[in-house]
Amino acid sequence: MPSDTRNRIVNASAELFRRQGYTGTGLKQIVAEANAPFGSLYHFFPGGKEELGAEVIRVAGAFFGRLFGSIAAEAPDPIAAMDEFFSGAAKTLIDTDYADACPIATVALEVANINEPMRNATAEVFEAWIEQGTRGLMAAGLPQRQAREITIHMIAALEGAFILSRATRTTEPLQITGEALVCDLRLALGEPASRGAQRRGPTRRARPRPAATAKRS
Amino acid sequence: MPSDTRNRIVNASAELFRRQGYTGTGLKQIVAEANAPFGSLYHFFPGGKEELGAEVIRVAGAFFGRLFGSIAAEAPDPIAAMDEFFSGAAKTLIDTDYADACPIATVALEVANINEPMRNATAEVFEAWIEQGTRGLMAAGLPQRQAREITIHMIAALEGAFILSRATRTTEPLQITGEALVCDLRLALGEPASRGAQRRGPTRRARPRPAATAKRS
Q1: Does pLDDT of A2 surpass 80?
Q2: Which residue, among B25, B107, B137, B168, would best test binding to A if mutated, counting the most A CBs under 10 Å from its CB?
Q3: Distance between B163 CA and the closest CA of chain A, angstroms
Q4: Which residues of A touch B216 (CB under 8 A)?
Q5: Domain total for chain B?
Q6: Is the residue at B98 inside a domain?
Q7: How would you class B210 by CB atoms within 10 Å of its CB: exposed for 0-12, middle for 13-18, buried for 19 or more?
Q8: By 3-state DSSP, what share of chain B in percent is helix, strand and coil, each rounded to 5?
Q9: What is the pTM of this model?
Q10: How far apart are CA A74 and CA B153, in angstroms?
């Protein structure tokens, strides 16, 4: 059986989980969306929906993890990268009619207390994101603890902003949390803490600077 | 039929939505948990699960809204109130084995693109929370726009931290986002931006101060 059938099943599942959650997605709907024969699902995922669900979480998690990592590690300017990440997320929400947010969050909330293997899969993804973001911000010059704190805050704020933005059908929450995170990152990197990208001064090299030493003028 | 049966149905539903989501909760499970006859559900909620779901969102939303409002409006010290709110949320998560987080978030993600009346109910709750928090922070001396931005950021960070904390079964995300929000609020109110409650100086009166004027030393 061609392995691109497997990919189509995983991608269709990720899309459906994003839009309607894990519990509300049936196997028949998955194979229909994936344009795959029903038997192929159990061929590739003998454990059924739970095995497929864990694989979707891992695949989608790895994809988003690369995005988080890129905020600092692959970008010459982590502040601009953070800004673009939130702007890009807002644009994607509009383009997809507020459907295409995080493929992990809905499932994570649904399964946290009722399905331990699935909860573990979501925890592994979040922990990988936190590690990737932390490494990226350390490469930009932040000490380990602060890089980890900013990364966790960023992922939490992003996930929560997705909830508010999808519910209210406005990108305001994403825009506001993005600006706040950019502001925090500028402070942490020792740049002036002006709020909002459009009010930023020219980009300068990042320097390590603990947030705890930031003082008001 | 006694109206406390109605309350038991609403409370049991809120508890079940919190733990396993809206889609994964069946009406039979609700009446069993509520210790109510099956017919009573349709007696009080002729529209069935959707009408009940919207009522649960409104009731739970109003309860949490009072908490958000109290952060500034009813507290003499909004910074201490913000700090205690996140600490209290972390303690509740531990006490309830990481189940008892927000009763709105899971439902909001599940229904955002597939059930417009339910999405509207979640949007109304989030908008009410934003208004209550904004009024509270304005009462503490912040200008309207900044009060709204901090409130939205706080709700987003809290909701996202719940996702991360429940998935990873650690209160670290709640603790870190709480400290970051306290730090932002201190900056906004013109207090020194030391990170972490335990490193705070003595509490002073809040003064309005736009975040955009905060400068590094």
Answers
A1: no
A2: B168
A3: 6
A4: 187, 190-193, 209, 214-215
A5: 1
A6: yes
A7: middle
A8: 70, 0, 30
A9: 0.84
A10: 27
Which of A18, A93, A187, A216 to probe the B interface (max B CBs under 10 A)? Answer: A216
Sign for the CA dihedral angle at B18, B23, B29, B35 comes to positive
| B40 min Cα distance to partner chain A (Å) | 26
Write the CA distances from A126 to A24, A59, A102, B155, integer angstroms: 23, 13, 12, 20
List, for residues B133-146, the tens digit of each pLDDT value: 898 889 888 999 99
Instruction: Please compute the mean of the pLDDT values over residues B186-203 and round it to a whole number.
Output: 58
ipTM: 0.85
Euclidean distance between the first and the last CA atom of chain A, given in angstroms as a whole number? 66
In a domain, B67, yes or no: yes
Q: Which residues contact A190 (CB under 8 A, 6 or more apart)?
A: A206, A207, A208, A209, B216
Whether the per-residue pLDDT at B33 is higher than 50: the answer is: yes
| Distance, CA of A115 to CA of A49 (rounded, Å) | 12
Distance of CA B18 to the CA centre of its chain: 12
Q: What average pLDDT score do residues B155-166 get?
A: 96
* Average pLDDT of the residues in A119-134: 93
The answer, yes or no, to whether residue A215 has pLDDT greater than 50, is no
Å from A11 to nearest chain B CA?
Answer: 18
Please indicate, yes or no, if residue B197 is contained in any of the structural domains.
yes
Q: Considering only alpha carbons, which residue of chain A is nearest residue B200?
A: A212
Structural domain boundaries enclosing A88? 58-195
CATH number at residue B161: 1.10.357.10
Tell whether A23 is covered by a domain.
Answer: no
Q: Which of A21, A180, A209 sits opposite B153 (nearest CB)?
A: A180
CB contact (8 A) between residue A153 and residue B180: yes
End-to-end CA distance of chain B: 67
